[in-house]
Amino acid sequence: MEALVRRPTRAGIAARFGFLGAVLLAAAPAGAFEGAITGAHGIAMRGEPKYGPDFQHLDYADPAAPKAGEIKLAVPNSYDSLNLFILRGQPAAGLNLVYQTLTESPADEPITEYGVIAETIDVPADRSSVSFTLRPQARWNDGKPITPDDVIWSFETLKEKGQPFYRSYYADVVKAERTGERRVTFTFKGPGNTELPLIMGQLPVLPKHYWQGRDFAASTLDPPLGSGPYKIAEVQPGRSISYKRVEDWWARDLPFFRGQYNFDTVRFDYYRDMNVMVEAFKAGAFDLRIENSAKNWATAYDVPAVRDGRIVREEIHTEDPHGMQAFFFNTRRPLFQDKRVRIALNYLFDFEWLNKNIFFDQYKRTNSFFANSELASQGLPSPAELKLLEPLRGRIPEEVFTKEFKLPATDGSGNIRSNLRVALDLLKEAGWELKNQQLVKAATGERMSFEILLVQADFDRIVQPYLRNLERAGIHATVRIVDSAQYQNRVNDFDFDMIVSTAPQSLSPGNEQRDFWGSAAADERGSRNVAGIKDPAVDTLIDAVIAAPDRDGQIAATRALDRELLWSWIVIPQWYDDRIKVAYWNRFAHPATMSRYGLPYLQTWWVDRDKEAKLAGGQQRSEVR
Q: Is there a contact between 127 and 191 (Cβ–Cβ < 8 Å)?
């Protein structure tokens, strides 16, 4: 649920490793912005911003929304840190409510940033730098002004001491310097990167004076100082965290924020058991739940509160893109360095049976690293893609040029005999043979064995059918479920054989691809290159994505990268849902116009006092933990 607290930037998505699928940016019309930009209130990656300089509020926000009341939410596992920006520790949910960035991206517009801490934005015609002039009223929540020195310190500190993601994300930024009383300029390695000005607008700005004398790289439970709409009110480590709205928030009257952040209090309660969490919601212990379990959505809400309208269930279709959710191989392990083994293990995964028998046919198979978007490769490469791929011929799989990528499929009956036969043939080619119902290395007699590391106990029921299919091939695979802190440490150290992970994508991919798939990130602790890819051809295609001169070029480069990743078989793709399934107690109201992307309920919803009174009169809500 963390990813839905505020519509996150791509920097925030990738930095907050391991949270649920993110609400991401979407594509813009073709044609990158041209010419110099001077004194702009906002900039779009392509085309013009939807909202002009005199706009009064976002279309999906109601400026008359009352500010009152509390919303209680629930999150799984635990937390032990209030430092959102480092690897050490498990950060609490909702911490992004405390902070503010130079610019903000609306949830109804693609690849556009509007000045928030930044009053105006300046970009030269060659895109070799970007300058932000800060608003004179921008303040920290202790009343001190936000200065260019804070911005520069934030940039330098995040690169030096923050999560590894920041080093790759800001790799093409040479320096940050004060160029005026309220002006800061970021200079880039070279001209032409149209995305970097927007990326720098996403920079979380941190208070330099607060961190003086403190160790930024250390996990802490001291409530941090920010400049956002909320501040931390109560901390119960591992159990709950509460945020209180800043009534005199400096940005409350900015047009971008009118009608947003209407709850006086936002509280997150932690639950270690997902089933207990669902039951607690139905008992009224918290207010709203984004349901990610197909089984729960189909079976767990047949209760009186739903039937009589006290609990509302909605399926909200959005235009959000989807990346890749999958079993990720750790190719640093010798077992998974042979592509034939990875392909064989794909043939033993029966998505169709899972979807029919466990998911109630609610999911679609993920067939691209840029699923549900125009960036997903399909058919054979286009001429524009071939211009990028031909120079790599001989260094990338030949199938990239000759075949449409298709995942192994079944009829959903549970009979995988034909797939099993293909898998065993591939494994035999790789030097494995089936003896006495065990798959062993022909040269040594060692049995094939590996571990799937999980952090969510309820995912075990999904993995078990896969383990049974592996067993039919003589493969010994086990599941290990660990707590969130241990899981994060093991993933950071690449101490796993296989994990379930996600690679969330926007429809304007760029620098973050280096952290997902780049060779330099493969050995950097805590990077998102969990598969351990070290492929110069992939690096070349990532560079082509970043350097794409226009939308058509970006689509071609991303599709080419997608093909190379798919034909490398570094994952066993799973599934996605193009709907947000939300259940909530009927005490809220929201604007008539909904956002195109995501579900910004914390930003734009509010407590409806009439509904709340009616609900309270119908049934006293209990505190269930």
A: yes
d(CA 122, CA 36): 8
Q: Beta strands of 352-426 (E only): which ranges? A: 364-365
Say which residue the tokens 């750790």 belong to.
330
Nearest of 364, 355, 382, 357 to residue 555 by alpha carbon: 382
Question: Do 94 and 226 fall within a single domain?
Answer: yes
Torsion on CA atoms 535, 536, 542, 543, rounded to nearest 10:
170
Instruction: Quote the strand ranges of 195-348, DSSP E.
Output: 204-205, 230-236, 240-245, 265-271, 288-290, 311-317, 324-329
How many Å separate Cα 267 from the centre of its chain?
22
* Domain extent at residue 219: 2-273+578-606
Q: Is residue 384 part of a domain?
A: yes
φ, ψ of residue 89 in degrees (nearest 5): 85, 165
- Total residue length of the chain: 625
**CA distances (Å), origin 459, targets 274, 295, 315, 503:** 10, 12, 22, 18
What CATH number should be reported for the domain holding residue 413? 3.10.105.10
Average pLDDT over residues 459-465: 95
568 and 428 belong to one structural domain: yes
Give the pair of three-digit tokens for residue 582. 């939300």
Number of domains in the chain: 2
Structural tokens at position 132: 């932000």
Residues 351 and 492 in one domain: yes
Quote the radius of gyration of the chain (alpha carbons, Å): 25
For range 23-35, the mean pLDDT = 40
Beta bridge partners of 481: 454
| Whether pLDDT at 549 is above 90 | no
Residues 549 and 596 in one domain: no
The per-residue DSSP string of 272-316 comes to S-HHHHHHHHHTTSSSEEE---HHHHHHTT-SHHHHTTSEEEEEE
Sequence-distant contacts of 362-366: CB under 8 A, at least 24 apart: 362/294, 362/297, 362/298, 362/577, 363/294, 363/575, 363/576, 363/577, 364/575, 364/576, 364/577, 364/578, 365/407, 365/573, 365/574, 365/575, 366/322, 366/324, 366/325, 366/326, 366/573, 366/574, 366/575, 366/576
| Residue 215: Cβ-neighbour burial (10 angstroms; 0-12, 13-18, 19+) | exposed
State how far the Cα of 482 lies from the Cα of 18, in Å rounded to an integer. 14
CA distance 220 to 224: 9
**pLDDT tens string 283-339:** 999 999 999 889 999 999 999 999 999 999 999 887 778 899 999 999 999 999 999
Residues of 99-133 as b/e, b for ≥16 C-beta within 10 angstroms? bbbbbbbbbbbbbbbbbbbbbbbbbeeebbbbbbb
Residue 417: is its pLDDT beyond 80?
Answer: yes
SS3 228: coil
What whole-number distance in Å separates Cα of residue 31 and Cα of residue 193?
A: 14
On whether both 172 and 47 belong to a single domain, the answer is: yes
Cβ distance 382 to 322 under 8 Å?
Answer: no
Regarding whether 395 and 530 lie in a shared domain, the answer is yes
Report the CATH number at residue 600.
3.40.190.10
Tell me the per-residue pLDDT of 329-371, one tens digit each, with 9 for 90 and over: 999 999 999 999 999 999 999 999 999 999 999 999 999 999 9
Q: How far apart are CA 523 and CA 519, in angstroms?
A: 8
